[in-house]
Amino acid sequence: MAKNEDDPAKLAILQEWDVWAQKKGLIAHAENGMLFYSHLKRNRPDLLLDFKYSGDKWEIVHAWLLRARKVRY
After folding, report:
1. How many other CB atoms are found less than 10 A from the CB of residue 45?
2. How many structural domains is the chain composed of?
3. Each residue of 1-18: pLDDT tens digit?
4. Terminal CA-CA length for the chain
5. Could you tell me the CA-to-CA distances from 31 to 7, 8, 13, 59, 63 in Å, in that order?
6. How many CA atoms lie within 13 A of 12 on its CB side?
7. pLDDT at position 14, please?
8. What is the model's pLDDT at position 4?
């Protein structure tokens, strides 16, 4: 499922973060996580947000970003 640490969806989203954040010149601020999630919903929903998760996908994406230290609280 999407919670697995080796999940391909998680790895793809973290890679997308790295590319997106570098292009934007962003750092690990909390609000940048939501900006990134908005980017995913607008531009990559069929590719990066198509993983199976019964809850709010923002919650899992945010958790992945936090654990990877891509964003802070």
Report:
1. 11
2. 1
3. 445 567 899 999 999 999
4. 25
5. 25, 25, 17, 14, 14
6. 13
7. 96
8. 59
Question: CA-to-CA distance for 50 and 32, rounded, in angstroms?
Answer: 21
Q: Which domain holds residue 42?
A: 8-67
The answer as to whether 57 is a domain residue is yes
- Per the listing, tokens 């945010």 go with 62
pLDDT of residue 1: 44
Q: Are 33 and 65 in contact (CB under 8 A)?
A: yes
Does 42 reside within a domain?
Answer: yes
Q: How much is the average pLDDT of 36-56?
A: 92
What amino acid occupies position 1?
M
The answer to the question of residue 14 being in a domain is: yes
Is residue 1 assigned to a domain?
Answer: no
